[in-house]
Write a structure and sequence with these properties.
Layout (H helix, E strand, L loop, with lengths): L1 E7 L4 H10 L6 E7 L7 E3 L2 E3 L4 E10 L4 H12 L10 E7 L17
Antiparallel strand pairs: 1-5, 1-6, 2-5, 3-4
Helix pairs in contact: 1-2
């Protein structure tokens, strides 16, 4: 089992969500977050460098079985990447091992709980 965490642009959420549904990945958690990466546009104000504020982003958390890792990642990349081959700020995907998953209602564990 893996936990896939994707940080994407706010305006990409609908496209990513629809693409995941079409790929039969329907269990996701969506959070609004703030941050910045390389898309730091420094400005000079009264002779001093000003770093802009944190930018609004969307965080997706998706727990998947091993068989769905590549499908999920490829779907997010295709639907979240900007036209023309992508641009700085399109986002990142993190894949981490998921030690255990437990469905509270039924007490199912592991891959069955996902």
């Amino acid at each position: 089992m893996k936990l896939i965490t994707a940080i994407i642009q706010e305006d990409a959420l609908d496209a990513v969500r629809q693409a995941l549904i079409e790929a039969e990945i329907t269990r996701i958690t969506v959070s609004r977050v703030s941050g910045h990466g390389r898309q730091v546009d420094e400005e000079i104000y009264r002779g001093q460098k000003i770093i802009p504020n944190l930018l609004p982003k969307i965080r997706l958390d998706i727990a998947v079985n091993e068989a769905f890792v590549d499908i999920t990642v490829d779907t997010i990349i295709k639907s979240a990447r900007s036209a023309g081959g992508g641009k700085i700020g399109d986002g990142k995907i993190f894949i981490t091992p998921l030690e255990e998953c437990i469905r509270i209602r039924t007490n199912e564990r592991g891959g069955e709980a996902i």
